[in-house]
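Page 37, top half.
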Amino acid sequence: MLAITFFLCVGLNLLFMTALAAWRRPRHPDPGPLDSYPRVTVQLPIFNELYVVERLVNASCALDWPRDRLEIQVLDDSTDETRFLVARLVRRWTEQGFNISHIRRLDREGFKAGALEAGLAEAQGEFVAVFDADFVPPPGFLKGTIPYFRYERVGFVQARWGHLNQSYSLLTELQSVIIDAHFFVDQVARNRGGFFMNFNGTAGVWRREAIIDAGGWEHDTLAEDLDLSYRAQLRGWEAVYLPNLVVEAELPVTVSAYRAQQRRWAAGSLACAIKLLPKVMQAPISVGVKLQAALHLMGYGSHACLLVMFLLQPFLLTYSARYSHQTPVSPFWLIVATVPAIAPGIYLGYAQWRANGRLTARIPYIFGASVLGAGIMLTIVCALARTLFGKPFAFERTPKYGIANHSDVWDGKRYALGVDPLLALEMLLACFSFGSLAYAVALKSWSTFFYNGYFLLACSSSSPRASFSSMCPRRLLCSRPPHRAIATPDSA
């Protein structure tokens, strides 16, 4: 009953957020172009990014901003050849007149948060932009974000994530659907609705004063970006989200990398909920803001509910076969069953319409994204359980391979992740789901046949090395021409 109630709340909230994103206007109108250029620090936190660091540094040095007002920090915790490549890049750009520094630490204490905090101590800028290694900032990024800091209480400005390699494989297409929903619905609705929203860890700019006032970067969770965002907003700082300013990024190209990323995000989100929800509930803010904050921070709990519903399949089938013909279904239960079923489709569909200008061609990917999300439910639930019982994860980076075109390959490159130990258990879940599907056929319960088939597809989507490119011909994977790598400044 608890799982059904939670699903109903999540479904209703998805519909509410989609409507809010569609009709609510921005709370911070465009302030117009700059009349002066403040000093800005660009921080590039990296760890063993041999295949993408040059692209990142080159794009950062191509930012359209006066050189005497721009500082670039490469916060390099690398232990492989990446550190030598960075040293060469920094030397090359320094010789061209850029204020760029190569900052290394004796250890990786605090991981990304620790690196950002160390860099902030040496930073010269009034504003601090952050880009992860797999991002490629466009030249006009700073001119698009900095003007919004004319609003005195704006603490950070977040841009939308784009996708360098969206059409590379079926996996990257499905990830793009999920990420687009976050950036076209969640972030728009939270920002325009006056709710707390999160800095996404990259492709954004902070007011340095806001970072310090909120207590600085902390590394007691795996989601330092979400943590700082909420602490700053609890201190009265405001956020601005710019859906029309896009920073392209590389999507993970293997299921193992995607699972690792989602595991880290889920664990970090719950850790932030444990740390921050009591403060949110005690803060002098509206009930609506508190409710949305709780749903936001506890969002990955839907995977736990999904797992419960999955395990109850045989019992639900038995109950339906024995009693459904005796007891008519009330309108209330029809609503309870229908809302969670249709809400994700509307949510994802609206985002795809906004992202692509069309919907029909994206419907298979919308369904596939839903299957992919359900397929990692055990991974997410285990991450939540470890966090809940105080068994923290080590920071697990997402491998990047410099994939931008169909001709790019990742096989044979470094940083590949090993087989997830949960894989065997997930295969057992797939067998369980197949049994449930066969049971539905035996009972001639055609109303639940597709429901069980959905779970079977989900549980079968966890191949340890799959990039999904082997599941269908390349021509069927591409709904648009592949993105091309962004042009970078000529080498010295």
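Page 37, bottom half:
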Amino acid sequence: MAERVAVLGIGTMGAPMARNLLKAGFQVRVWNRTPDKARVLAAEGADLAETAADAVREAAFVITMLTDTAAVLAVMRQAAESVPDGAVWLQTSMDTDLECVAGLAEDHGITFVDCPVLGTRETAKLGRLVVLASGPGDALDRAQPVFDAIGSKTVRLGPEAGGVIRMKLVASAWTVALAESLRAQLSRAARWACSRRGASR
């Protein structure tokens, strides 16, 4: 049976990430503070949760893709007690205080992987994000199929990568993400040009 992934935060990046997880065969349960955004994904095969706590029950992986540290902490404080034993929390938001978020995971005995993703809406749709992953090696191994579903490149930063290491790698990884975005846009432009030539004949 396919593993269940809970996606908390169905916005510009979270929605296409959830779609790519569905395409990869995962069972996906979604939750968003604005329910209408999550309902769209329910029509595409995701399970819709009414609360963050409901979303994470029975999940093998919990993905947070939220705006900032305050949002991540607020949502996971509601959901933490419902996270199953053995589940892995994949924190994919970029703008977060790693120490605070990891501390919450530790307080509740949740295996935590910090894995911010780099890219644009277009690269997220194409499943070509760059994942910067740090956490226990066995958790990273387990999560690799999730990373493969949402991204084209996973950079493993080590078990406890600090902020300095993380930020040094952001510049090079961001270059990769921009290149992927440009490649996608050029490909789309080429297809449009071909269709225009075909229509004019």
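Margin note: The beta strands are 4-8, 27-31, 47-48, 61-64, 88-91, 111-114, 117-118, 129-134, 151-158.
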